Structure prediction request, 692 residues.
Amino acid sequence: MAEVAVIKTAAEQQLAAGWQEAKSRLPGPRLLRATAFERFAAAGLPHRRVEEWKYTDLRALMRDAKPLAGAPGTAAKAKARAAGKPIESLEARRIVLVDGAFVPELSDLAGLETGLTITSLAQALAEGDDEATAHLGKVVPTDDVAVALNTAFMGDGAVIRVAAGVALARPIELVFFNSGERPASVFTRSLVLIENGARVMLVESHEGAPGAEDQVNTALELRVGDDAHVDHVKITGEGAGSLHVSTLMAAVGARARFNEFLFTTGAAVVRNQLFVRFEGEGTVAGIRGASLLRGRQHTDTTVVADHVAGACTSRELFKSVLDGDSRGVFQGRITVRPQAQRTDAKMATHALLLSERAEADNKPELEIFADDVQCGHGATTGALDDDLLFYLRARGIPAKEAEALLIQAFVGEAIEGIEHAGLRDALMDQVVAWLDARAG
Amino acid sequence: MRPMLEIKNLHVEVDGKKILNGLDLVVEKGSVHAIMGPNGSGKSTLAHVLAGKPAYVVTDGQVLLDGEDILALPPDERAARGLFLAFQYPMEIPGVASFNFLRTAINAQRKKRGEVEFSVPDVMKRVREAAGKLGIEQDMLRRGVNVGFSGGEKKRNEILQMALLEPQLCVLDETDSGLDIDALKVVSEGVNRLRSSERAFVVITHYQRLLNYIMPDVVHVLSRGRIARTGGKELALELEAKGYAQYQEEAV
Prediction:
């Protein structure tokens, strides 16, 4: 067979074997899965000669592919009860997934607001939920190989629907917890359909037992209706995996407000990829993030903002604080299609290097096919300003505290873009905790 | 009585270039000393080396603050011991709100000295009072430190910090530069309010003008990195009339 020649690394062979073993028992759309696996089989794991994955060479990073996660046991579920601490104060509706499996008994499914439905993806696929299968893989079509693997192996996830005009007062939190009981491959896929005029705040918390060595491939498809107002926040914390690949595919309607935020302090290797398509006119979007990395951590943020419809405003602002031997990668592409006149798209990315060994890579790309647009990008990389530090220290502020103030200010500029005050405070608390750990 | 500041035979290099060449200076408690001198004579270097700026290398000499050598101390410890430098060019710090900065500075110093830290309402009250006297709007304190401030506002903010930190030795580096006459009056009044028998001032300036408002007890002329002449306040008037020509010639 042709693909045998292509599949050659141990991890690729293990994934192929895993597919043979699992394909008959995985729920739902056989053809979709099989097609997706073929895509993977033809391309193999993305490596540094694949431009989109240039800085995060999965072929090199994955020495092996862990076995698919099994159903979580009692001990694993018990550990998950304490997860989601960082945003506890938001009193969000918690939906808990342990080792990739939706756990209803840990989830807050009581008293769902009218117009809100939440089910598990595995259940939706097993029961042949036509609406879910109609959207799956089609919200923002992509041939990305990590997404293909996710589609082939997706085991469970959340399916959330919010009816037109419904404003949810309570945020929804999807807690993805890795128990760390045995290193596993975890493939979760969620589908969130928000109809016209609805108001929703959705937080994803990815965390786990310290040092959990799971290989996580998580994806979320999000449809934001016309005039809807949606905040999506992803927090990637400790225990989020030794390899954590995450994809957001968001299609945004007209006159919507869409705010995305990626907050990353955890996992050894993180790839956060966002594919955002602006499909209706007059939408205002903020796509922001902050990463605080130390040791040998690696975080790759890859954003594709695709302006299909005109008169949308998108603002991207990413900040990374890099200590030790860490590496922060930002790849951002803004595409403005020929019909997307009056697009106003800007992207900025700033890295703060706290160590001489840390590395920041920035790759902005603009693809503009319309003529009446405003587009721009800016990238900076630098160390803390010695003159600012001296000024603070001359006022009696010790070195570590002075550094912490400046780092907080640096990260704060991105966090300020979050509309929810409680969430802003919760994330700033996380920044302070990170700085405290740094000061030792 | 022990002097507030005693500088003995101070030699300082910046980027391998000698700037201060055996400077001696004694400033008693309760006094105001003006240091004047032509450009390049080492005035700002003196200010920065007192505050402990890293790039300045002391190759010889001593700096005693209230009898103790401070040259081995980092800038924050010097500040906690009562040394304050009002910067010629105060820094803008986006994202660090003025109030938060002031509170952090005040409490860091108090903690270092083993004093009880002030509560947030306590600091707020002190800041409000001190800011009011200097005509600093509350709105400015909510913004990032010095962000979007005019030159005059930045200098007033330096004096605000000085008032709140209650230092023993205040070093003012060209505080009059870039100030119009109204701002100069506000800043000078702020300084004069802080004069006391326990506090000393070193006022570094190129022009005599500032000394009409902050009356010095002693005036020194700095030239070629050392004190070339010392006198009373009439020396400042003489410099204003004759200029620095004779000191610059010496410097050649």
User: Anything to note?
Assistant: The radius of gyration of chain B is 18 Å. The mean pLDDT of chain B is 93. Residues 98-112 of chain B form the longest helix (15 residues). The interface with chain A takes residues 51-54, 74-76, 78-80, 84-85, 87, 90-91, 93-96, 100-101, 104-106, 108-109, 112, 144, 161, 165 of chain B (CB under 8 Å).
